Amino acid sequence: MMNEIIQIVGKETVRVVIGLIGVLILVVVNALMLTWLERKISGHIQRRIGPKEVGPFGLIQPIADGLKLLGKEILTPSNVDKPLYFLAPVLIFIPVLVSFIVIPFDVCLQVKDINVGILVILAFSSLSVLSILLAGWGSNNKYSLIGALRSVAQNIAYEIPLLLSILPVIFMTNSLSLKDIVEVQREGWFIWKWQFFAFLIYFIAGVAETNRTPFDLPEAESELVAGFHTEYSGMRFALFFLAEYTNIMIISAVATVFFLGGYLGPFLPGFVWFFIKTYLLVAVIMWFRWTFPRVRFDQLLNFSWKILIPAAFINLIVTGGLLKL
Amino acid sequence: MVKTVFDDIKNTLKGVEISETSYDERGYHLAIESQKANIINIVEFFDGKGFYLEDLCCVDYKDYLELVYFFNNHKELCRVKVALKVESDKPAAPTISRIYTIANWYEREIHEFFGVYFENHTNLTYLFLHDEIDCYPLRKDRVPVTEDDRRLLNSFKPEEYEDGFFINLGPQHPSTHGVLRVVVKMDGEYIVSAEPVLGYLHRMHEKMAENRSYLQFLPNPPRMDYLGALNYNLGHVTTVEKLCSITVPERAQYIRTITAELNRISSHLLWVGAFVADLGGLTPFLYTFQDREHILDILEGIAGSRLTYCYFRFGGLYNDVDDAFIDATKQFIKHLRGRFGMYEKLVTKNVIFINRVKGIGILEQDKVPKYGCSGPVIRSTGIPFDIRKTEPYAAYDRIGFEIPTGTIGDNLDRYMIRIREMEISLNIIEEAIEKLPSGPFKAEKVPKKLKPPKGDIYHTVESPRGELGVYIVSDETDTPYRMRWRVPSYSNLMTFPYLAKGELISDAIATLGSYDLVIPEIDR
User: pTM for the full model?
Assistant: First the structure.
């Protein structure tokens, strides 16, 4: 039976389908675990314990939360723009799924090695801003709209340094494939090979790109109540939430691939190394949230246009010049 | 100061009845009987001299209503009471809101509680009460709401605004700390104008006071300001003691100072956490709460409650403190001094925090008298005005302490002042514990039913938010004829429309947080 299917659709397709299912499971489980991690980290930073009752160390808490959200009434406020309002939470989840296809978790643990892998990730992660805009516009709420508009300006401003900071690495590897980029780092991680500043720029821009504190202006709760998802409840709200955590994961995973040697590391299997590095970065992003206050909107844009982008350009030119020598 | 003001009024304002009063008995130095014709001249005179409008209230004497204006000076203590009699049938008076901005709200308040119509006032809609209330609640007789007032209320329509949009910040907004509502007119992210809407927590404490004896009213003031409960308790108790000429034993005075300062620290600690939470930093909130918990434990040990303490009694205290209290307080002083370093690293030296608060919400020094603001808000502008220094109560005159002042009056100044005030409060407590005398903790022979002599009294204390004034009119019965509370957050909040204008909404939220507002106190 299995052989017949393989013969009909081809080995590669079966591999991709299985990979996609694996990615889907990974995304959901990862997002659930990240909510647990966030609560634990915030708990310990704030001298609390965090969830501990449901399961060992409260590990089943996120599942309980998910069940609770599933059981909630799906509320639709009056006067919303219904198609956009319904579409936004679904649409925010698709791009983050696609991005996982090209990420190499181990030497052979990758759904598909595309030779323009990083472009796929960048292109699809820019799509998430569209669904935020839809959510903000469709909600028919002023707070939501302001949050959405902030989000658009922020994403445009921070995508540029994000791209500029990974270009030097692409210069040095001559490839857009994520797997090639990891393999080149067998001689040394890029974070130690001249690209430390690129890593810093990437990481800061990445935090801004995922709308996390100190750059969480689209959902600044003391100003905008909850920003673009003010009017969402139940499972629709949960989808925004899952997408946010998956975005953090993607940003950290790409940082791991580009600067921290991806799955490379001694003794332990490759995917373990990959997840250790990724989750460390995720933990740092969470640490930011529970330590820093929020920046103001003009400061946020100034920081990108006046500091990060020039710095990234200089880094790019210097790297290019050195490679030419 | 009092003498020169007296002479000045005699010379410049001809035909004004002015008399000197005993400050120790009445709480004000000069009393002026004014007429409708010359009230504007008198107010303009005080405005020109740099006085601020401390309070504006009304008393119903059945035959006539009396509007009472209190003026005071930030530089040197000189309190003047200006009384204006208006007829009780169709009462009307000229507005002074053009001269003093804060009078705008005071006059609206009097209009809804007494039915006094203020001529040329721009907006006489109700501030606290429900639109459909059918009488004026603070009048002694039941007076139905006039047809004119009804029409005034129903004619109010929300403004049309086409270039931008309105946002209702509150009453359930996460950063208005309670149930304040601010109607904000926006142009993009910039604020064109902001108008606070009050009254969501109005409980009419002033009317309650008229219906119960002085002793029965004791638990009410702590419920107006749940964060500075002991200071409100103290304000009430000291005013009544002054009115009845009760002497309080020395030991009680010192314990009052210690506990009031502990309360001030706990209020400021909560503010630091809430202010940083307004800016998006959620963690310091839990750290300050942890420190605050020590104070709540200490005060619970002596007062019995953890938040709305009612510890002071007329003539003394509810009970004496023991060694456990002294030890715990000493330990807490040591503990909190060790924590300031951490707050400095976490908050004060944080670049993001400094960039968010520096140069934002600047209140100029010369604007202050117009609004009558007080507490850390006024000290941030550089005026060292503190009731604990100008009119010492409890044991503050026997303890040396400094008043921290800011330089430009921005949000950073207000933050730094409160941090510094906590350190100073610790010093005050330490010194008071050292000097704590032994002896009785309450005065002997204080009657259960207090019947103060006829007359009025104005007395102030420094609450964590600023100047708290209590005005009591007594008619020799065991209930106050009129009890008026002048609350600090009220006049501090009045500066918000001025400070928020033209600011980004994020900055306006920071400014709103920097006032340390307690809404039940504003709404009373």
Answer: 0.86
